[in-house]
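Lab meeting minutes (informal)
Scribe: AK
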Amino acid sequence: MTREEIIEKIKLLPYSPGVYMMKDENENILYVGKSKSLRNRVGSYFQDPDRLNIKTQKLVSHIRDFTCVYTDTETEALILENELIKRHKPKYNILLKDSKSYPYVKITASRFPNIVLSRTRKDDKGRYFGPYTSSKAVKDIIETVHRTFKTASCGKKFEEGKSVCRPCLNYHIGKCIAPCTGKISAKEYAAVFSEIEDFLKGDYKRIIDQLQNRMQAASDNLMFEAAAQYRDRLTALKRLEENQKILSDLHTDRDVFGLYESETLCVIAVLFIRAGRLIDKELIYFSPDELTDEGALGDLVLRYYSAREYIPRSVLLAFAIGENGEKDVAAFLSDKSGHKVEVRTPQKGAAKELVTLACENARQTVVQYAQDVNRSMKVLTHLYRVLALDCIPMRIEAYDISNHGTESMYCGMIVLENGNFKKSDYRCFSIKTVNGQDDYAAMREAISRRMEKLREYRLSGDNPEESFAKMPDLILLDGGKGHMSAVKPIVDEYGYPISMFGMVKDSFHKTRTLTDGEGEIDIAHLRDIFTFIYKIQEEVHRYTFARMDASRREKVKHSSLEDIDGIGKAKAARIMKHFKTLSAVKKATADELAAVSGISRPIAEKIVSHFENAAKSGHTKSD
């Protein structure tokens, strides 16, 4: 379709909400957008080219057609836009991480509370803080809470005035106040968690004042051990407070968006400011091709919050989305959150300093990325020369075998792209045709299945982003000449231009040479390659062992339950799905077990009796 034909087609569009999809000559979707007026928005792409920025000009130069989906409201258009972008992953759209995986810090609502990581925010009377950008951030916070407030990290259920078990090592080394002993009342423990809530809100002054008063009172009453505990907690809190700079009004939560664009990478940094303190940040990476005009950035902010549960009262932007854009985004966020949300692009004052800080975070990320890419390319180029490869190995796959006896045998496949681990492309093969511990046969099966998957995807042309659809430039096997002799003929049979080497270990379990099945290349004296290959060796071993061990543990859990008369695979699976861990099953009462679908009272009592007898004889299987 010519430009003139597209302009005529635009004239038929209504002035109503909807979603538009720009397509190239092969019907591939280049860009998905939404608008409250389709004719105005789609028509804006085909105005005088000199009025468009370079990125938009590049997009328009590839557009050969467009299609629209009409909606009743702009909110419906936003939801549909999100779904279409996730499904088609258009080249010119900025892709966002699925918000369903964002974790929270949760304080449970039990008499003896616990602090845990939660993936969802439920209406269960628990107190939630976040969301945070990664589970690591949440785990670090939980660890800090346990270390600072000396709360129990074991996850046990406690009862007032009753000892549920002997105190563990943490109590004896002063890292836990041990509610398991029954000497801590529910009221005292709840008071500690009240302080923890203040800490998570960033209200350090209130906690410090309370602790100082309690320390003084304990000292006045000659309760020196309690006073010492308050002193240690005060010291830890003051140290934490010194490390956290107050950035804004203590009573306002803010998200601050910064943007930095370069010729190789663009980054949006989102700073999460809660109670005046920077608690976390998120980085959104995208290529220089993706659109960053006012309309695209306004859509991005809307999509960013569309699936999020928590929306702060203030959103500051380092980039313009137009006056009407700010009003539209603010109205949407206010309606979704149930409270008024301010959206603006500050030009001066403290708010301007915050967006400048966000932009600097984005800039530093781009600079670091450029340095990392340069470093990775140097190593890959050196590896290409040393191994005399056909091309620089931009995609590397490494394989390792792990097994538990003759059962649970797995072959792990890890992937590196551009010298960096790409965990989303990791895959694992459950070995099905090998009897006994035969690593060569297991590796042959895994590589045969990998090559067959590659052949199927290349013939069909389906899903080119799937890991198995991508051809590696280099395959590394955890093994020497024996593994290469067993596997290389399989790869050669398919005729793909894939180089393959085995990683030969020394007595310290580190790769000292690489072998093509005939000769060996010493890499011990090549520090950059030696370190690079060692990291690959350790990662493929870690991943493969973890997958094998998870399978083994699951089988142990099920087989332990299946030892009990009246319980087969189906009932064992139902019990494990309900209780999650074997430890929880062992601690469960007959009433709790009988609450599981398909488990009768007599069977529940058999389970309790089985584990009680096993504990007495010392033959229980662990998690």
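Next up, CB showed the second protein from the same session:
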Amino acid sequence: MAIPLRVLIIEDRPDDAGLMVYALRHAGFEPDWRRVDTEADYVACLSRDLDVILADYSLPQFDAMGALRLLQASGLDIPFIVVTGTLGEEAAVNCIKEGADDYLLKDRLARLGQAVTRALHEKELREEKRQAEFALRASEARFRRLAENAPDVIYRYRLSPTRCFEYVSPVVTDVIGYTPEECYADANLWVKFILPDDVGPTQQAITGVEGVAHRPIVLRVIRKDGTMIWVEMRFVPLYDEAGQVTAVEGIVRDITERQRMEQQQSAMTASLRAVLEAADELIACPDLDSLYRRAVELARDKLGLERCGVLLREGDHLRGTYGTDRHGRTTDEHAMQGPHAAIWMEQPGLLEQGPRWIVNETPHIEWDGEKFVQIGHGWVAATPIRSAHSLIGVLFNDTAISGAALDPAKQEGVSVFCSLLGNIAERKRTEQEILRRNQELAALTQIGQALSQLAEPSEILRLIYTMVGRVLDNSNLYIALCDEANRRISFPIYAIDGEHLSVPSRPFGNELTEYVIRTKSPLLIHRDVMGAMARLGVDPVGRPAQSLLAVPMLVGEKALGVIVVQDYDHPDRFNTAHLELLSTFAAQAAIALENARLYQAGQWRAAELQALYEN
């Protein structure tokens, strides 16, 4: 099948043009041709649709070299073949030098088809080359746009014959502070901004050391402004034919934030592991008091808190339990009360389900056993200790020893620790409440049974003392009896710090015992007993107690005496449940004493009647 061919023939002789067309057809082409013999017609016919131009070397008004120059000026790539009657060797060479694809004589037109085929093939090769060059330029442009707009530094570093940066993307200035020009000017600049300990691994990577190249390397880099950042560098070594590394291409990514997050996550994991390790020890604590003591010790030893303390919520104030001081010691802070507690109780996050902790800038204070001592100033974090239903207390911690900033990861661990502590405390509180109720019921049942079998007041009072000791601390307890007829108070039971004392009777006065007998009402004083007595108009006597319970022993409207329990060391030691329990004991004791009195009176009366009868 003939090959279509669009041909422009520059020839002043129609017969010669016809011979060219004949030769092309004979070579297997189907020419679509036009003949021109003037420059104007030639220029008018030039278009990229043409496949080939055949030109006579010399025309009366035009020539092949002029036509070739016009073609080149147009920018069109059309094969140009000179076909002439006679042409010297020098002219032929000049045609080729000027850019003609071929030349041949008119008496050798048998070669025309071959010349056209070769010229078309060469044009096709030129077109492929242009397209490849265009694609390469487009690819390079895309790469440059990507490199110049990518957040990571892209670079190429030549190792031989001389070392230098061949390319560094502009974002290098944002990442490490140096400009691309500074990198180009100093081949060893990378050695200056990488920390010395990290230079070795980098050198191994860029030289293609086995097992090091191709894998990312995490490095520490000193920016131009002196700050340190973490970067991840990826390398691709480039080899020559001999297998030697001649250059390296790669990217540098700022991973400072990622590194910080990983470190924070690692610290958080370690903190949570420490909390889980502490959980078993907290659960093993036998009671609430030992729980809070162990909690501050574990917070110090497991969580790494410099100073901490647990305060319990009681109404609208906080009461101390245990803490740790600057010297690593565990301190008893049960007597700690202070105005600073109100500041924290006002924070809504402690009372509501809000932030996991609250931080305030405040004086650093320490309880020395008697008073607060200021030891500095800085942040103090307060983390709520909550049960499922309510706020139990607060764990305070600071860095008064080192002055370090607050560590959010560590504080997250403290928050989890406090949540765990709150749940364990609630459970132990419930267990202790159940145990207390059981002990109270048992004691009440036992005392009721025992009292019904006693007739001696002294035995009744000793039993009351013993049974109170099963549910309350009776090491500081006294029982006073009232002799209304003689207006005197006696003390058959009087224990101080567990030691039983012999206290003589005394006349009625204006002391606590007489106040309870007079008012016939139970009395609960949470703290500052001496101050409370003064406010009641009662004369304070003896050793000042921190908290106190006092209940009358009543039979109807008659007060037989008073039972008083005191604590000389701890405020808020007693509550309304204790008051109710002691009141029940006192009521049973009063009935037993009255029954004993009536029994003795009956015995005396019977003895008198027997004596009269016998006389």
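CB comment: Residues 25 and 505 are 152 Å apart (CA to CA).
No objections, moving on.
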